[in-house]
Amino acid sequence: MKNYQIKTKEFIFENYHKNKPFASFLPGIAGKTGVPMWTYYVNRGQLISSFGIENKDHALLDFTPANLSYQQTPLKGFRTFVKINGKAYEPFGLEDSSRTLKIGMNHVSITDQHKLLETSVKYFNLTEENFPGLVRKVTFKAKKDIQLEILDGLATIWPYGTSLFVQKNMANLAVAWFDVFNTEHKMPFMKNRSTTEDSEEVGTVEQGNFYVTVDEFSQRLKPIYDPTLVFRQRTDLILPDGFNASSYEDFIKEEQVSVNQLLSAFSTNKVELKKNQYYTFYTLLGSYENLDGLNEVSQSFTFEYFKQNELKAQEVIETLTQPLEVKTSHPIFDAYMKQAFLDNLLRGGYPYLFKSKNGYHVYHTFSRIHGDMEREYNNFYVEPSFFSHGNGSYRDVNQNRRNDIYFVKEAGLFNLKQFIELIQLDGHNPLTIQGSRFHLDDKSRNLLVNKLKISDTSFIKTLERGFTPGEIFKHALKRSNNKEQALSELNQILQQSEQTTESSFGTGYWSDHWIYNLDLLDLYLNIYPDKLKSMLFEETVRFYQSHMSVFPRRYKYVINHQGEVRQLGAMYQDDEKIKKLGLKQSTNFHKDSDDSVVRVNLFTKFFHLSLIKFSSLDPMGMGIMMDSEKPGWNDAMNGLPAIFGSGLTETINLYKLLNYLHTWIKNFGEETIDIPKDIYVFMENIIDSMPHGFHKIQDARESFDEKTRFVMDKASVHVDLDSLKKPIQQMIEFVEKGLEEAKKLGHGLIPTYLTFEALDYHKNGLKHPHLKLDAVDVKSFKVRPLPAYLEAPAHFMKSLATKEEALKMSKLIDQSGIYDEKLGLYKTSASLETETLSIGRARAFTPGWLEREASFVHMSYKYLIGLFKSGLYDQYYEAIKTGMIPFMDPLVYGRSTLENVSFIATNNNPNPKNHGRGFVARLTGTTSEAITLLYLMFIGKHPFTYENNTLNFKVSPKLKAWLFKDGQVSIKFLGKTEIIILNPKNQDTFNQKVLKYELIGSKAKFVVEDDKVSNELAEDIRNEKFKKIIVTLG
Question: Which CATH superfamily is domain 4-320 in?
Fold first, then answer.
């Protein structure tokens, strides 16, 4: 028997403690009207390595990186000590035993087998409660008649108010503030007695961390919060000397100390069990804003309460993931896709709809910046609020919302507009997406206050300053204590509110962020192709404005201390701009000379984007420059901006955008639009500069940047769309030439990265304003491509390549050193061994690890998309046998193959034990790419098309015969409609056609004997009027 299996929606590992260590987490979803808790676990000891609320500074069990958690969790985490007929034993402890790990979507559990006792532990988070909590369910099963003394719980728990810094650096001092309250209720409430800052003002601490244990008789077990009772002087925590050495009666009578020492969270009891008899209890560990409130709410903490919450924890995830259902002959593939959907929304959020004045607000809940034990460098944030959502990075959130439209179609246009209007006039964008806030005008606010009879001043102040749904729900719940009524008030308030996106600069400008907006555009038009014209010319967006600016070449091209010409210190905080415009710390949008926020239609926004990115082409017209301190997707190439790096991935997407513009002009050439004069003049200057080369184009760009640095000219130019055809065509031809030259440079395989060496330069008499280095003017450069990378070819194949081009490029990739033949995986690049450290930290990494020549799964999946989109179906299906996670060997992969990872160590890594092993769990762009692949495979590239003023719906499955079970597969579409695909021939479907559609609604059924469905019926499909569509192939 394999020591892993999938059963009843769980991935099961036998003897998990002997397998490769891995780190993962519970999703931290408490439902829309619950407050979440973050919980991390490893497959060592009793799993839970750290948990808490909000961030690392509010942990009940302190946050620890993965490699240290593998060592420490068995001792400092949850422990179970028992005496079976007087003989001590620790399930999951040092004594070896047979153990099982079961991983569910919202729970994790373990079982330990002893000759006299079976011990099972299950963890899940509280759901739909107004406070966060981790629930631990412990069940003992006697294999013979036994007397059982139990001591179970957490070896170390931190009181509320103890930050991560204090936990790691000042724990010895911190205990001076610790205290435990409420022990008379058998529910210890642990907090600092006061604030701990070295300040003249000292405040009280009301909130506390707590735990309580309730058994199957709804009796609260005795808490043991003093670890010295348990361990005596065994501060190594290896053995419970105190518990083992004492009789149970003496042990529970000992006085406990609650001050000047670290605390524990154990509970104890003594029971008699007959053979095959069970004994179960639940322990809740959480945080509450005050003790009185906790004691009031805890009256509901019965055994039945926890049983119901266990069910709710499962139901909330099942409900949340219902929009993605796929059924094939491979259940592991089906379960993998559902897990990918869950993990995708953890990074991008799930789009909930609230009624607005003119339709719907789209509000993403449950998102957070990717941070866990393997990404310990990130300061993750899980908002401890109703309708919880956290911060995220522009690229991450954008990518992970790409497929929203396939589940909540109203989110498509919202996402596109939200991200495209964060593009600044200089072409850059803020890094951090902080989510949405809502605002009421004075009239609407006053009407609502009167209508809802709101008298609480704090509630009114919240309505005045702007708010999130969670803040409003909390106020409404506080005054009504009724969730339905609170939801009603929330909906009424949001319906009258305006929604804004909050964002902030972050840490820099990445050169690739803008390209993901083209994916949002593509997906929107896959569902709404008939809305293209109205989207382009009726929808308006703004230009984000940052407090940061970018130096022109005359300052940032410098001679470093080693005498080398470099591009350094490109960005600066523009205090003049801040002062002149009165920029706020929060989100700002560009204004014109009349102090009005600039708004343009989406065509103009994309037109401007093409201009600013075209003007960012490198000296050879091949790659788009990394001229603002940051590289593109691959963060570990952080040295490239200094050595004048550029990227072809971005150029490929520029070419794609320019061709879109060309097509739109061709289709809607009779339209007239108003383009801001500054943008129009910028276009003219670019076109005039093109014959004169790089420096003239850069002069035009820097002139535009300076001209619009503060405000835009309010004037606009009224143009016929057709008049823009020629300049767009000129730019297309220019970019086309650059791409062809790049292919030659890569010997047929398009390079991903180029670097440039300054050949002819002279000091210009200026100093870098901050670095004080001599600045130079560079007259000429020498180009050098880096070794082959997967990224640019993947983008080329998915966006531009013909089938013949893609086939040729795929063969070149296989021969380039990118393909790991032993594992059947694609690496980020060929060998970097001959490169210098100047390209970035990737060169310093070990081969086959992180971004250096390992398999970054999300980029590999982009390449798989390229294979599929270019029509190389046989090559695609051959590649996924080894390159797609659900088809890998879990014992090699080292974790559940239902869960994605960021990278897989490849065969070139010096540690053979890691070959094929996955690292950095789940919160990755891989989930988005997996969902994209799923819908390409089952539905096709363009489910809806618009031709000759007719809306069509067409399913174009490209599936291998082995995916069909009894001649059929099924997939859910638009979140509600089940599409069943029948394959009577039981053959590959690459060349099969659709013979018939059966459209089944609640009241009517239609049969369409054609390869597409058109007009009203297609519209009805889009409006989700059919619960089932049966598609017959032939």
Answer: Glycoside hydrolase, family 65, N-terminal domain (2.70.98.40)
